[in-house]
Amino acid sequence: MAGGMALHLWASKVIGIKGTIGWLELFPPEKRRFLIKGPYVHVRHPIYLAHTLMFFGVFIMTGVVSIGIIAVLDFIVSYFVITVLEEHELHARFEKKYKEYAKKVPKFFPRLF
Fold this sequence. Notes:
This protein has helices at residues 2-20, 23-26, 46-62, 65-104. The model has no long low-confidence stretch (mean pLDDT 85). By secondary structure, the protein is mostly helical. The protein has four helices and no strands.
């Protein structure tokens, strides 16, 4: 859980509060820039990974089955639905630059080596 919270705070610091709450998706600034720093150097979707880590951490700490189910559902929706949609949107917005980034940086789980 602590790892998920730390990752979430680190990513939030990089993208700011507006990026964290999705404000920039609803009201994009005129100048769009592609940001690669902080946790985004290691994983393309750190916020969703942080959510999953936090849910699994709470499940491991409490043993409450419903929280475990939520953790699994969070992972499934984050990995197989939300990140897929975001990948399409980011590719459309940044094209070649995002494609090169996606080749270097893992989608959800950082490489250990």
